[in-house]
Amino acid sequence: MSKSIKDMGWDELVQGAALFSFEGEVDYEMSQVQPEDRNYAETNSRNAYVGDWRVEKPVFNKDFCIDCQFCWIYCPDTSIIARDKKMIGVDMDHCKGCGICVEVCPTNPKSLLMFNENTDNEEALEQWPEKSEEKGE
Amino acid sequence: MLEIRWHSRAGQGAVTGAKGLASVVAETGKEVQAFAFYGSAKRGASMTAYNRVDDKPILNHEKYMKPDYVFILDPALAFTDDFTANSKESTKYIITTHLSKAELIAQIPEIQGMEDRVFVLDCFGIALDTIGRAIPNTPMLGAFIKVSGMFEVAEFQESMKSVLGKLSQKIIDANMVAIERAYNEVN
Amino acid sequence: MNSKVMDIKKIEVWDGNMAASQAFRQADVDVVAAYPITPSTPVVENYATFEANGYIDGEFVMVESEHAAMSACVGAAAAGGRVATATSSQGFALMVEVLYQAAGMRLPIVLAQVNRALAAPLNVNGDHSDMYLGRDSGWINVSTFSPQEVYDLTLCAFKIGEHLDVRLPVNINQDGFMSSHTAQNVRTLDDKTACDFIGPYQAVNAMLDFSKPVTHGVQTEEDWHFEHKAKQHDAMMRSRKVIDEVFAEFKALTGREYKAVESYGMEDAEVAIVAFGTTYETAKIVVDNLKKEGIKAGIISPRIFRPFPLEDIAAQLQHVKAIACMDRSAPGGSVGALYNEIAGALFNSPARPVLSNIIYGLGGRDMTVSTLTEIYKDLVKEAASGKLNGTIQRFVGVRGPELTYYNA
Ligand code: SF4
Ligand code: SF4
User: Fold this and answer.
1) Is the pLDDT at C212 greater than 90, yes or no?
2) Is the ipTM of this complex over 0.90?
3) Cα pseudo-dihedral B181, B160, C45, C178, rounded to 10
4) Residue B126: closest CA among B73, B165, B47, B86
5) With C348 labelled, which of A43, A90, C53, C141 sits at a CA distance of 20 to 30 A?
6) Same domain, C331 and C364
């Protein structure tokens, strides 16, 4: 899109308030292209930064992760970054800090935990809890 | 403009009859209209249906009508319906009854002195004999052709065949016989 | 065109419901989603019969309510198909929420609306209260006067609504029972001619076009809502040009002429009534009778209720001395909608006719030749005196004491 939607008058908007996800035609296999390489349209929510919505943030500890992909499935904002079925981290531009990924993470101790937004990740990893004896938590 | 009012019980085929008449008459190149008062009429309730026939397109959508012909499809309605309502000096009545014309008129004060405008036949008897069901509307059409003199009976039968279209030959033939008998028996 | 062609006569005797069903069938609609309600039930029943007999290639979806019917229509239209449905009265009322969605999402759905009174009290007969209920919903609203017009204008509706400069839903109104259940001669087009006239469906921003993934029904808030509504209104206003073009094309094909404003006897009319629906045709008879008596009477009707043909109506009423605006809908605490429309149309023009508002025909109450004649005779008096006989608004045909409101 040459012109930003922010600069458009009524006559330039797409009728019916339809919003296209991508610039141009999708004549390729979408699943074969990584999100960062896709040609998202300006109005795609990928271009909306919501990182500042967080009060707490999820921190990922790969030492305990079993790559079950629960967090990837459940994250309401597709903010879990996975590659080749391996969890590699959190997209902090789109994570809103809801904590669902932490809830669903099945490992003991959890591989994802919520920390204060201002806590340094290294510090968070140092504070990581031990394996809990309580079953079913 | 020719106007017809049908008195019938819901389920006796007055709406089908009125629409059927309209379709058949339209085949002859005329403009037609057929409608009915429905309300909350249940099967068996008294109801009225209407036809208008003209040479030019029919624009009148009022329900009010001063009919040229009144058809009474149910013998009892001749005694209970106000079938002479909104009539003209020239309105003709075709009444289904097993009674003779004289017997019927003797019992209905509203039509006394109208011997030349009242016509009777037994639509139920004819329908049962020919079509095998007590649906009086086809015989009524046969009687109407005779009384109105508007159509040749053969011409009307041809139009009717094209309207009955996809029905079985047996049923079409039975309807043709019903029309012919009604045409001959109405008096 | 559907793969199985129906053999229909050049002149059929159809009621308004059958006329709508046949137009749907000939339009080769992709999806009809409907929930039947009197008096529009036969539109759906006839269509289901066509489907059962193999005449419909598209989908026919039975749903659990009118809200669901219009919702299914919105979904199917957004997916990229030609869509139609039918309803009346309470069913239409239940659809209202989704009607605004359909219009705002710019989906060219065609609705066969068989006008019927809104309860309470419950009544299946015809008046225009449901038509008035939908007038601000963003649908193109067309008024029809007979089964022939239902057929013709339903065919036109697909072509108008789907035009790339329009893309708006179209509501084809007909009077419950007076048109929907009244069988009359209908001059037909064969399936191919009808389908060719409408032309193939052109999908716009279709959800099933995977090469351009798209979101419909977005949230805009204050940022863009106004702009989208402005765009929608502009499309509605510009649809008038397309409507005129489609009517011209239809006339070239059939010889039957439709105009945004229909009028009869208006060339020299000094008294006129404005009315929708079947009343228009009945009034033509009265106009002819009165002209023979030397009374210069006319009848005028906005064929297109939305977009409202304000300028055309004003132009045709310039020389008229007394006008009765006849609303077949309970006005709910004001003058009727037609009165407001006509008054508004005339206000910036030189004409200053005596303008009255008649509320009539509610719940299917008959509008007869004789009552229309009386209304015209009253107008003649008003034209002569240059002022209203009484108040601005009066009820005609209601039992009980005279009902009049608003002094001039
Ligand atoms: S905190 Fe919520 S938004 Fe952030 S990654 Fe976890 S599930 Fe997704
Ligand atoms: S839910 Fe936990 S264990 Fe499973 S992939 Fe996510 S972080 Fe790893």
Assistant:
1) yes
2) yes
3) -90
4) B73
5) C141
6) yes
Task: Please tell me the total count of domains within chain C.
Answer: 2
Please give the pLDDT value at position B41.
63
Kindly state the tokens that stand for C192: 């191919």
Strand partners, B49: B6, B36
Q: Give me the domain span that covers residue C95.
A: 11-254
Counting from 1 in the atom list of ligand 1, the atom nearest the Cα of A112 is 6
Contact A16 C216 (CB under 8 A): yes
**Do C339 and C270 share a structural domain?**
yes
The residue-averaged pLDDT of B157-163 equals: 89
Check whether A43 has a pLDDT greater than 80: yes
What distances in angstroms separate CA A123 from CA A13, A55, A126, B115, B119, one per listed residue?
Answer: 48, 17, 5, 114, 108
> Is ligand 1 within 6 A of the CB of residue A81?
no
Side-chain-side CA neighbours of B122 within 13 Å: the count stands at 8
Residue C2: inside a domain: no
Task: Specify the CATH number for A49-126; select among 1.10.3720.10, 3.40.50.720, 3.40.190.10, 3.30.70.20.
Answer: 3.30.70.20
How far does the CA of residue C218 sit from the closest CA of chain A (Å)?
Answer: 7
In this complex, which of C218, C232, C235 lies closest to A19 when CB atoms are compared? C218
CB–CB contact A17 C220 (8 Å): yes
Q: Is A22 exposed, middle or buried (0-12, 13-18, 19+ CB in 10 A)?
A: middle
CB-CB contact of C284 with C272 (8 Å): no
Q: Are residues C68 and C50 in the same domain?
A: yes
CATH number at residue C292: 3.40.50.920
What is the reported pLDDT for C20? 98
The CATH number given to whatever domain includes residue C144 is 3.40.50.970
Rounded-to-integer distance, Cα C94 and Cα C64, Å: 12
For residue C370, list chain B residues with Cβ-Cβ distance below 8 A: 64
Tally of domains in chain B = 1
Any domain includes C36 = yes
Q: What CATH number does the domain containing B20 carry? A: 3.40.920.10
Note whether residue C3 is domain-resident. Answer: no
Name the closest ligand to CA A109.
2
In chain C, what residues touch B35 (CB-CB under 8 Å)? Answer: 15, 177-178, 181-183
- Radius of gyration of chain C, Cα coordinates, nearest whole angstrom: 21
Report whether pLDDT(C257) > 70.
Answer: yes
Domain co-membership, C79 together with C131: yes
Task: Give B31's Cβ-side CA count (13 Å radius).
Answer: 11
Question: Residue B38 pLDDT more than 90?
Answer: no
Digit-coded pLDDT (tens) for A71-118: 999 999 999 999 988 999 999 999 999 999 999 999 999 999 999 999
Q: Which residues of C touch A28 (CB under 8 A)?
A: none
The percent of residues above 90 in pLDDT, for chain C, comes to: 99
Give the pLDDT band of residue A130 (cuts 50, 70, 90).
very high
When pLDDT is cut at 50, 70 and 90, the band that residue A8 belongs to is very high
Chain C: give the shortest CA distance to residue B187, in Å.
30
Distance of CA B83 to the CA centre of its chain: 13
| 8 A C-beta contact, residue A116 and residue A56 | yes
CA distance B71 to B92: 9
For ligand 2, atom 2, the nearest C-alpha belongs to A105
Is a pLDDT exceeding 60 seen at residue C142? yes
pTM of the model: 0.93
